[in-house]
């Protein structure tokens, strides 16, 4: 009887140590004495692999720098990246692995709207943060949730701000739209309609396409027949090039404006003369090896030396997102928990970066860091920033 009593007492003591006063046993998932484990889900083998691969390298570059500098409050960062192939079902499986097997503290910079949204239930169930997905969809921070924070101005605001500015500047009379038939495309549609409404205009014509389309002849023919002199593109990388190449082939040369989804070094690289003149909403600029900015030039060449390839704006995004996480984790202090990190995020300000990103601010009621965009244009085969931030 006495033996049983001692055994029961031992169990109670261990339980008390684990959940009560014994702090050494009370551990936040993904946080140990000397390590913080974080995860990311990228498209490394699907339609957006050209974006996911440089994003992964950018994430890793900043992780390596932080670790070389001693980590965050003495803890090194461990980054684990999984491939979704831009498939929501694969993204869910990847999230389950990262959350349940790898025990990550936070998911950072995951790629794409649909794959990221699909992972939310997995993350929220286990109290794991979704931080700064690489998408400008409003679902990344709406509805407000203590675990969801977004970095990039949304597609709706990007287009609403930039279409108003450019239509007036170009004195356009007939504004039209070609957009992807999904949530992303609908955000561009709504931004276009609401932006035009503020200047007393409406869309003259609109036409959509299915994701992954390669033939844009019918859409371009429809816009040309409507005599559009300004076309908003609700397109991503390949579709931007395909639509503009078809327009040039048809002798159709309106002003073209895309969202940040069209702002990528591969657009002028692969699109050639067909995309010359394209405008796009953006924040951080393409990091060219011979950039006018010495800081960007130095960073770009360091990246090239490390990975043996030139960086893109997605490399910059990955790099900056880890930096933002480090800012918040440093502010949270040495006792890193979900609660301390959330409190740090809700009062966080991130200064403007030398890549051109504006100052980011977060609060308990505002989980989107940046609401501003500016314009860049393809000129002679590369992107050139052509405006300040628009409001």
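Q: What amino acid sequence fits the structure above?
A:
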């Amino acid at each position: 009887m006495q033996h049983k009593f001692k055994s029961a007492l031992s169990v109670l003591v261990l339980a008390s140590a684990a959940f009560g006063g014994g702090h050494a046993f009370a551990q936040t998932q993904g946080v140990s004495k000397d390590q913080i484990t974080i995860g990311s889900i990228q498209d490394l083998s699907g339609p957006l692999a050209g974006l996911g691969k440089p994003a992964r390298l950018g994430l890793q570059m900043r992780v390596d720098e932080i670790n070389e500098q001693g980590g965050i409050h003495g803890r090194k960062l461990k980054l684990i990246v999984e491939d979704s192939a831009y498939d929501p079902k694969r993204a869910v499986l990847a999230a389950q692995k990262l959350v349940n097997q790898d025990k990550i503290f936070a998911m950072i910079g995951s790629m794409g709207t649909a794959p990221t949204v699909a992972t939310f239930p997995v993350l929220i169930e286990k109290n794991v943060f979704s931080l700064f997905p690489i998408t400008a969809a409003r679902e990344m921070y709406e509805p407000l949730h203590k675990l969801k924070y977004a970095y990039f101005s949304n597609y709706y605001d990007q287009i609403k701000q930039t279409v108003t500015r450019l239509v007036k500047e170009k004195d356009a009379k007939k504004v039209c739209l070609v957009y992807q038939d999904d949530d992303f495309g609908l955000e561009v549609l709504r931004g276009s309609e609401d932006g035009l409404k503020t200047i007393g205009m409406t869309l003259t014509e609109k036409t959509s396409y299915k994701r992954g389309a390669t033939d844009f002849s019918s859409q371009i023919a429809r816009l040309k027949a409507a005599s559009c002199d300004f076309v908003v593109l609700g397109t991503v990388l390949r579709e931007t090039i395909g639509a503009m190449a078809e327009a040039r082939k048809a002798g159709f040369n309106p002003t073209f404006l895309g969202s940040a989804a069209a702002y990528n070094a591969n657009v002028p690289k692969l699109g050639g003369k067909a995309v010359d003149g394209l405008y796009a909403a953006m924040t951080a600029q393409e990091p060219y090896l011979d950039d006018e900015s010495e800081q960007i030039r130095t960073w770009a060449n360091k990246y090239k030396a490390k990975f043996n390839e030139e960086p893109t704006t997605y490399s910059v995004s990955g790099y900056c997102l880890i930096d933002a996480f480090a800012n918040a984790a440093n502010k949270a202090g040495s006792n890193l928990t979900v609660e301390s990190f959330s409190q740090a995020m809700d009062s966080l300000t991130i200064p403007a970066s030398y890549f051109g990103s504006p100052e980011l601010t977060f609060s308990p009621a505002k989980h989107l860091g940046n609401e501003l965009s500016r314009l860049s244009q393809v000129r002679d085969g590369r992107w050139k920033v052509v405006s300040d931030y628009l409001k």
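Q: And what stands out in the fold?
A: Residues 1-25 have pLDDT under 50 and may be disordered.
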